[in-house]
Amino acid sequence: MYYRFNLVLEGEQDILDPSDDLSGDPAEALAALVQRLDEGSADPGELEAQVHWERSGVVCSECRSVAVRMLSTPTEDTGPH
């Protein structure tokens, strides 16, 4: 027997600074955001991978057991890893 899996990691981080004055012109706020993104030094592929990463495949029953054990919710909160 084998098991198919799909693993999707989706980043959720607001890129708008809550201290930004949003009462002004929305077009100006959007233009400023686009300019900040354009001036950034990060690789576009890396930025995309931080927002959405997806893998799928097939595993045997032993590998399934390992994955389930690793991804199961711990009984107590261990915090971020």
Short descriptors:
81 residues, alpha+beta, two-stranded antiparallel sheet, 2 strands, elongated
The mean pLDDT is 79
User: Helical amount among residues, as a percent range?
Assistant: 40-55%
User: Strand order within the widest sheet?
Assistant: 1-2
Which structural class fits the helix and strand makeup? alpha+beta
Kindly estimate the percentage of residues that lie in beta strands according to DSSP.
15-25%
Question: Could you tell me how far the N terminus lies from the C terminus, measured between alpha carbons in angstroms?
Answer: 32 Å
Poorly predicted tracts of residues = none
What's the total helix number? 3
The gross shape turns out to be elongated
Biggest sheet architecture: 2 strands, antiparallel
Structural Rg: 20 Å
Please trace the helix and strand order, writing H or E for each element.
EHHEH
* Total E-strand runs: 2
Can you summarize this structure?
The protein is α+β, with helices and mostly antiparallel strands.
Question: What does this protein look like?
Answer:
- By secondary structure, the protein is an alpha+beta fold.
- 41% of the residues lie in helices and 22% in strands.
- It has three helices and two strands.
- It has helices at 26-39, 44-51, 61-71, and strands at residues 2-10, 52-60.
- The protein has a two-stranded antiparallel sheet.
- The longest helix is centred in the middle third of the chain and has 14 residues, at 26-39.
- The protein is elongated and about 60 Å long.
